[in-house]
Amino acid sequence: MNDKLTLNKLEKLIELETQLRGEYQQQLDDKDVSIAQLSVDKTTLEAQIAEREKTIATQLATITEFSSKSKDIQAVEQRNRELHNRSDKMKDEVATVKSRIKELQKDLAAERAELAELKKYDPQRLRKNLDASKKKLADKTAAADKLQKSLNQTRAENTQLEQKVKDLEAQVASVDTEQNDQAENDKQAAA
To answer: Would residue 29 count as lying in a domain?
Structure first.
């Protein structure tokens, strides 16, 4: 009996299961389809998540690279600012040096002019010039003395010659007077 009862219960259970299966089979099938769809959606989402994780990893690597490049760029910009400041300072120094060079060139020109002026009064050269001038003066003095003697001698000779000319003119005049007297006398005598 016990077996019968168990069998009966089992039959009832099978019947109940069949009845429940009949009632709920459509829902179970729908749920299976839904589960299958959700499994497909899950794998799709997992694939998308994996793809996005790869994208995020790539973006992270790019950001890291840009971050290091940004640091390099900042260092270069800092170096450029420092170099620009140094070049400005050097430009100022060059301008100062150029003005100093101009001043020194002016001073050099003044010193050269002064040196040229001082060279004019160089004692050795002045002595040479003085000695040469003395020799020239002595030569000119000697020449002047000779010319003076020659002039005096020429004047004396000129005076003598003038005296002779006067004497000769006087003689010519006396001879002319005598000839005129004689011609008159001859005219008177002939008359």
So the answer is: yes
Contact (CB, 8 A) for 125 and 119? yes
For residue 187, give the nearest of 173, 176, 179, 172 by alpha carbon: 179
**Residue 145 in domain:** no
Domain tally, the chain: 1
| In-domain check, residue 93 | no
Task: Name 119's Cβ contacts closer than 8 Å, sequence gap at least 6.
Answer: 125
166 by Cβ neighbours in 10 Å (0-12 / 13-18 / 19+) ranks as: exposed
DSSP 73-125: HHHHHHHHHHHHHHHHHHHHHHHHHHHHHHHHHHHHHHHHHHHHHHHHT-HHH
Measured on CA atoms in the order 40, 45, 50, 51, is the torsion positive or negative? positive
Sign of CA dihedral 62, 68, 70, 76: negative
User: In this predicted model, what pLDDT tens digit does every residue of 21-78 receive, in sequence order?
Assistant: 788 788 878 888 888 998 999 999 999 999 999 999 999 888 888 777 777 788 888 8
